[in-house]
Design goal:
By secondary structure, the chain is of the alpha+beta class. The protein contains 7 helices and 15 strands. It is about 25% helix and about 30% strand. The strands form 3 sheets. Strands 1, 2, 3, 4, 5 and 6 form a 6-stranded mixed β-sheet that branches. Strand 1 and strand 2 form a beta hairpin.
Amino acid sequence: MDPDRPNFFSGPYIDRRAEEREHADWARAALEDPQTLYLLGSGTRQLVFTRPEPRIAFLEGREAAAIAAAERSRLVLLGWFRQRRCVLVEVGDAAPLETPPNASFEELRPLSPLLTGDEAGLLAYARALSVWRARQRYCGACGSPTVAQRAGHCMRCSAESCAQEFFPRLDPAIIVLVTDGESALLGRQATWPPGRYSTIAGFVEPGESLEDAVAREVMEETGVPVTGARYDSSQPWPFPASIMIGFRAWASPGTPARVDGELEDARWFSRAQIRAGAAGLPPVHSISRRLIATWMDGG
């Protein structure tokens, strides 16, 4: 496992150019630019070609600009993708949309392993913004409707007496591989496919450091006290709006594992057991798999 390789959904797949969001006429500039790429979204789904292999069904040109103009209040400037301006169009339900052949609105989660890394990252970014915008239609302070500003990256309360501004939020979650030198601590949830095990994970609570969250989650879910922890890497996880913060942690050899009901099972696995298939591993594009693979390689 290459320790310098970005996790899936991560990496320099887009030039965000956040300064462009401050221009009041950004949408006009996008609509007038024939090189603009339009990524269409409907709820949490995006328009993709499903065959011969999954890829984003970008729209471009005059017809695409006409569709975007009709949905102007739902445009979001994503940035520059493959050196071209890229705009998310959150299409409404008022009129049927004629899509290209073999294109349909699909959920990202089942398709993500089949997409190229940069397209998966772009769809994850778009999905996270769509989820946030759908949940921020009203002001959390006074209840008034919100209006989009800053190219769709800010929702502002429409009541001038309030005028609260809301920006996208992420839910930080730690995910940790605990080892005792020769074995790794893995757990499984009852809803997972039979035999699958993964690393321990949980959300960070208010007033808690990441390291404190690691120690608390491991203790709560497995009863194993950790003796130290080290940051490894992170991964955006837009299901719906998390940032997974990966750690390696250590425990004393021979520490027994137990479960308290949140997990169906938790146990120690040696490298030999994992290689022999005693534990089904999480998907290859997950940070959990990266943590396990790095340890398996001797890292």
